[in-house]
Specification:
It contains 15 helices and 25 strands. It is of the alpha/beta class. Strands 13-14-15-16-17 form a five-stranded mixed sheet. It has a four-stranded mixed sheet with strand order 4-3-12-11, with helices on both faces. A four-stranded parallel sheet has the order 6-5-7-8, sandwiched between helices. The relative contact order is 0.07.
């Protein structure tokens, strides 16, 4: 193994150069829940510390209450249901303080936790149930109709009877039946997003979860060296608990004795209000949420001084937005890991309150087989096609300018010189638009917008329209003027549209008579694309 890179030429595998983190012996019976509780009990002793908060209902749960409810639910499930180890339990519920209790109780019993998105359709839920084959489901009154008949039925988390399962007063140590859970047993079946086909079930063992938690515990222990205890964090969950990230984070919260703040339905201002009220120190975010932090004036309305770090993932974050975030929130560390082909952009020193830093490392040129594209250095195949030439980044050039220049220089240009070649067809009425008409419309729309509206470069234009002839011309005209195009689904609800408008902060909107009612008042108003009197017609 190369001591500098960790790469082994014999196996084609990179290994971590850090010292190995000690794991429990694989032969030791141990569930992920038991492991998290053992670390918590050896590190933290204050049971009055808040474990979870539901900002929607205002309910809170201390660690002593959480542990008590997990034991009580474990006992209740053993007494009332004939569940066997490795049986699958399907969970279909919005976030609530009951979900962590259910997860830990099921894991303690050696049952397989299989949570799903409560917003999924009936057919999607049916497919997931076919994959995981659950014998029991934990649901709410709003989601129960999506679940077919199961061997042991369904448990309603919001029923008046459910709290009684969490408050068994007759439990004493040793009453619950001893359950031997092997680390190799399946702990959870989560679901892929279906990017490469239909949704797939992903099985994870208790050993998988224990290994992840061991690394987190090791990092936290190193962070706390020199102190009696590492600082306790308060994390606002923007990720759903059924998601793999949310699932792992929930286990880590218990492991570290931290506090989790949950919300049943995400709202940007409600999140800011929760940060102020509960002194939130960190949260996972997506790039659109970082944009909202940068652009929204609501952030000045609330005290966000407790925030220490945001972990950004899910998609690339633009460097400009990252730097603007750092300027607006200099005391908050924005952490992003972004992996690209032959490049690594890595933010390090995760727990330190320092300014945002970008660290780039460029791999050396690879020796590639000219016939196959295979590199023996990385054990990967590279494309044999020549690199596509791009315009210099310094050249002022909009997408419409570039696309039209390529079109005019292509073999299609002569065919369309007479304006007869069709660009777009409206299947509903048979109307057509030729390329010459399309290009003429772009220039005409751009001229009309410059004449009739006081638009500036980088202003945002919100488009809320079903497919029509106007939309392609509108996109090209706006982009040619340096205006930011922000289209949204016309089927979105008024609250969803309002949220998107808050995020993008448009100064003008282009809509139809059917969709304009969903839009708030904007600086330059709304242009109706289906109006005969439209200045863009």
């Amino acid at each position: 193994m190369d001591p500098k890179t960790g790469f082994c030429r014999q196996t084609g595998i990179y290994s971590c150069l850090r010292p190995p983190v000690p794991l429990p012996p694989i032969s030791q019976p141990l569930s992920a829940a038991e492991f998290c509780f053992s670390i918590f009990n050896s590190t933290f002793t204050d049971g009055a510390t808040t474990f979870s908060v539901n900002t929607t209902t205002g309910k809170t749960l201390s660690y002593s209450q959480f542990v008590s409810q997990v034991r009580s639910l474990t006992y209740s499930l053993q007494q009332r249901y004939s569940l066997s180890q490795n049986d699958v339990a399907f969970i279909l519920s919005p976030p609530s303080i009951h979900i962590p209790v259910v997860y830990f109780a099921l894991l303690s019993l050696g049952l397989v936790v299989s949570p799903a998105n409560p917003l999924s359709s009936n057919s999607e839920i049916a497919h997931q149930i076919q994959l995981s084959k659950p014998v029991v489901a934990f649901v709410t009154s709003e989601t129960s109709h999506k679940i077919p008949s199961l061997k042991h039925g369904t448990v309603l988390l919001d029923s008046p009877e459910f709290p009684s399962l969490l408050t068994q007063s007759n439990i004493v140590n040793g009453i619950t039946k001893s359950v031997k859970v092997n680390q190799s047993d399946t702990a959870a079946i989560l679901y892929s997003s279906g990017t490469t086909g239909r949704v797939k079930g992903v099985m994870m063992t208790h050993r998988n979860l224990i290994a992840m938690m061991t690394v987190i515990h090791h990092q936290n222990t190193n962070q706390g060296q020199g102190n009696e205890k590492p600082p306790r964090s308060v994390t606002f969950f923007t990720v759903p608990l059924f998601h793999v990230f949310g699932f792992f984070m929930l286990l880590a919260v218990v492991l570290l004795g931290n506090t989790v703040v949950l919300v049943e339905r995400f709202d940007f201002e409600e999140m800011l209000r929760a940060v102020e009220k509960y002194k939130v120190t960190g949260m996972p975010v997506s790039p659109p949420l970082v944009v909202a932090f940068v652009k929204s004036d609501l952030t000045r309305k609330y005290d966000l001084s407790s925030l220490q770090r945001l972990g950004c993932g899910g998609a690339p974050l633009g460097k400009d937005i990252a730097m603007r975030f750092n300027e607006k929130f200099p005391g908050v560390l924005l952490v992003q890991k972004k992996y690209q082909k032959m490049k690594i952009i890595k933010i390090i020193k995760f727990y330190l309150k320092i300014h945002l830093q970008f660290f780039k490392s460029q791999s050396p040129p690879l020796a590639v087989d000219p016939n196959t594209g295979f590199s023996s250095q990385t054990k990967t195949f590279d494309s044999l096609r020549p690199h596509v030439p791009l315009p210099p980044p310094s050249q002022p050039l909009s997408l419409p300018q570039y696309a039209l220049s390529l079109f005019h220089n292509s073999s299609h240009a002569s065919a369309t010189a007479g304006g007869d070649t069709t660009f777009i067809v409206d299947a509903a009425n048979g109307n057509t638009l030729s390329y010459s008409q399309f290009i003429a419309q772009i220039y005409s729309l751009a001229y009309s917008m410059k004449k009739n509206f006081s638009l500036s470069r980088n202003d945002v234009a919100f488009i809320l329209s079903p497919p029509s002839f106007h939309v392609p011309s509108l996109y090209f005209a706006l982009m040619s003027l340096g205006i930011v195009v922000s289209p949204a689904t016309p089927l979105g609800s008024e609250s969803e549209i309002t949220h998107q408008v808050k995020l993008s902060k448009p100064v003008i909107a282009f809509a139809t008579s059917k969709t304009s009612s969903k839009l708030p008042s904007l600086k330059l108003g709304t242009v109706l694309l289906d109006s005969p009197s439209s200045s863009l017609s």
